[in-house]
Amino acid sequence: MDVVLNHIKNNQLHYIEELKELLKIPSISTQEENKGDMQRCAEYVAAKLSTAGMDRVEIFQTPGHPIVYGEWLAAPGKPTILVYGHYDVQPVDPIDLWESPPFEPVIRDGKIFARGATDDKGQMYMHIKSVEALIKETGGLPVNVKFLIEGEEEIGSPSLEPFIKDHLDLLKCDVVLISDTSLYAPGVPTLTYGLRGLCYMEVELVGPNRDLHSGTFGGAVANPINTLAKIIAQLHDKNGKVAVPGFYGDVLPITSLEKKNFSRLKFSEKAYAKNLGVAELQGEKGYSTLERTWARPTLDCNGIFGGFTGQGAKTVIPSKATAKISMRLVPNQDPKKIAKLFEKHIKSIAPKSVKVKVSSLHGAYPAITPLEHAATKAATIAMEKAFGKKIVYMREGGSIPIVATFDKLLKAPSVLMGLGLNTENLHSPNEHFNLTHFGLGIQSSALFFEEMAK
User: Fold this and answer.
1) What is the pLDDT of residues 103-162, one digit of tens each?
2) Is residue 91 a contact partner of residue 30, using CB atoms and an 8 Å limit?
3) CB-based contacts of 166: which residues, under 8 Å, 6+ apart?
4) Cα end-to-end span (Å), the chain
5) Which fold would CATH assign to domain 2-195+366-453?
6) At the top level of CATH, which class does the domain 197-251+297-364 belong to?
7) Sign (positive or negative) of CA dihedral 50, 54, 56, 59
8) Residues taking part in catalysis
9) How much of the chain, in percent, has pLDDT values that exceed 70?
10) pLDDT value of residue 401
11) CA-based nearest residue to 224, from 242, 201, 205
12) Whole-model pTM above 0.70?
């Protein structure tokens, strides 16, 4: 492995130049005018997989954008690793806030600036270069490796799940390796091992059959906005717990090992509050901020609207009021089950003076890879060797739906070996990627394959 790692270090500048070419392609998946660029980007990724030494490389057309597949399966008896990533990027607006053109990569202060630099072209490309280094220096790979690189992640991956269902044998694997998450802090090797799911609902209350004069009819009929506000206020108890009956029934408890790992992060609640501009933090009683945001379920009203909201005054009792409510879920919670519990509870506490409609808009399953899993242990050793530091473990409060899909359809856990930073402006102007982390990521990837072989 020393020879392989030296090869990676010696070719770092060459890898960066290749990454620049990839970043120049405006592969914006949501814009119809970039459809040709999406095909061109898929072809670039496929060409680099071939150059890296994959035995088979194929571009699969989908109803949306192409999926790039590659494989090297010449390690009989060894595990099979599926590397997942995406080559599509977010739109660049507002363009006037970019310090340099978003598809003309530039390097400043050891960081490469371009749309897609950290999300996810830079992180995805690390793994292509790691297998290339292994094959060039050793003649092969210590494990079997497959690549699945899609072009629709930024628009919800509509073609991916059908593709997986149609190609279960092709994608069969023991572990999925994903680099589309972040380090806890610069230079700190990090594994994200848990993701929250999502249950996103809409509640609509209808009172009178039309908007009414608040003087003439005020005090005679229920105001849907007032009623909706009262309902929302009842969704938490005095300790910050969600008051929906059965909500916590399937929640996976936080283990003592996890609590120990969280405490090692030396998280500052004071600094966290200051950064957000709030005087104090709040949430479910009995849990730390990290526990509440990573490993406990939540319920939040994301928007409430109805009546008159324009400039000036219009004194009406609105006919209708609506709220958007999201619930972040933790492992073992089922978004479909939670949606039913939520709907039942809302209808049970709503007064007869309004008509209630509850709709489920979106759901995503939570996911977790146990810290004791062999793949987690292999990734731990790999990143600690590359960085020369002790690793930290974290969960993520957000959702990556494809992780749960891999678990459900391929029966394969995911290793989230993120090398980005949450401060690198992903989805925002001036997106960038730390090139030191780029190099360490290539090393970590190569070491991970070596450790998985053991």
Assistant:
1) 999 999 999 999 999 999 999 999 999 999 999 999 999 999 999 999 999 998 999 999
2) yes
3) none
4) 13
5) Aminopeptidase (3.40.630)
6) alpha beta
7) negative
8) 88, 153
9) 100
10) 85
11) 205
12) yes
**Residue among 178, 145, 174, 185 nearest 160 (CA):** 178
The residues of the chain scoring below 70 in pLDDT are none
> Mean pLDDT across the chain, nearest whole number?
97
Tell me how many degrees the CA angle 37-39-45 measures, rounded to the nearest 5: 100
CB 392 within 8 A of CB 189: yes
Measure the CA–CA gap between 71 and 151, rounded to whole angstroms.
18
- Cα 307 from Cα 322, distance rounded (Å): 10
Do the beta carbons of residue 333 and residue 366 sit within 8 Å? Answer: yes
Total number of residues shown for the chain: 454
Taking CA 178 as the corner, what is the angle to CA 173 and CA 179, rounded to the nearest 5 degrees? 160
Q: Alpha carbon of 359 to those of 55, 134, 201, 347, 362: distances in Å?
A: 48, 51, 6, 12, 9
CATH 3.40.630.10 range(s) for the chain read 2-195+366-453
pLDDT of residue 318: 97
For CATH 3.30.70.360, the residue range(s) in the chain are: 197-251+297-364
